[in-house]
User: What shape does this take?
Amino acid sequence: QVQLVESGGGLVQAGGSLRLSCAASGRTSSRYAMGWFRQAPGKERDIVAVISWSAGATYYADSVKGRFTISRDNAKNTVYLQMNSLKPEDTAVYYCAAEGAAFSGTLYFKESDFGSWGQGTQVTVSS
Assistant: This one.
């Protein structure tokens, strides 16, 4: 497993931007896919975006497609989530997740697929 620490959350007005970062430590010498999930108050945790080890494969939830971009820097063991054109409905706690991958292009899509999680960072979008 790897240890994950998110940063970059905060309060922003609708239409604004934020960039979340997630730094990994521990077994970072192995390949691992990463992702971002979010949980709004009273709702289940949902997928936002995921990225393969090679960064050649990505997936976005329909609700964020075209506004959010996931990327990673394996030299820094860090994954990013650039969030543009933020909406009040993007308000949630955002969690970073990681899971070992046999192949560099592997993607995971389900919360249960990921074995390592960060503590979460709050994103609040005001209208």
The chain has a mean pLDDT of 96.
